[in-house]
Amino acid sequence: MTRPDATPAAVEAVIEAKRRGRFVHAEDVWSTTVVFDIDAPHLSVQELFAARDAVVAFVHHVDEVFSTYKPHSLVSQLREGHLTEDDIEAMGVAGNRGAAELTQVIRLCRKALIATRGAFDPWGVEGGFDPSGLVKGWASGVALDILRSHGVRRAFVNSGGDVATMSDGEAWSTGITDPDDTSRIVKTLDLRTFAIATSGTYERGDHVVDPRPSAGLADALPLDPSAVTPGVAVDRRTQRVGSTIKAQGARSATVVGPDPALADAYATALCVDGLQSIEWFRELGDEWSLYIVPVEGRDEHGRRTAYRFGTAFN
Fold it and tell me: Which domains, and CATH codes, for the chain?
């Protein structure tokens, strides 16, 4: 079947893009726009269309599996108690692709929960388990893997501010904006294969929830991370009321690191924890960097004071 946009004009546009060495596609999904910037002059027009179609199909598949607004999604089924995490894991083992992906995301969420000492907690929000603070980053990383499997060696994926890049040559350049003046770039990063995630109130309003007021942190987290079992999430879902309190830790937080999913989660946690997060962030390792603008504090020019940590911001 021919895609609606595989018209002579569209093909000509791709051919022209190839002459410039770049092919950019924007897809509206997840209540945002996902941009794929593919630098693959060695691929044919047909190969570029195949790569583009594969990642577009994937991001819509992600919406069907992870949406908290679609009642048939696996995440919604989990939130409503129609499925347990054990059910989903068994479905994945049996060959259900979406269930296997959700199981992977749940494990990443648990890893981020422990690393951030509860500042990132998809089980602690109103309505039950909501991995939205990690899924966009995770999906960006998988999209790069899909493009790589189609022969692309250099690409840039921007999922509404969560960026994942790969390059076997020239670095990608991206800017971090001033949360009070989005026309002003406060830092430019040149990266090859890395993830950059930004969370904050300046673009989407108070959308980050502080998950911690709904239960004492000491009761929520076992002292031994290995003691976190697949059943814990379901217990947390049924034993406590989800938080609706908006995070007040940071106006803006940007994380740079090797894993797009965890970068997304850590940026979310920074908005919850603010400057206190530097304590647990240091324990992540040398591959991780942060740029955080607290809610309070301004310099002599009236601009918010920013704090930097890690090699990316040296």
Answer: 171-210+246-314 (3.10.520.10)
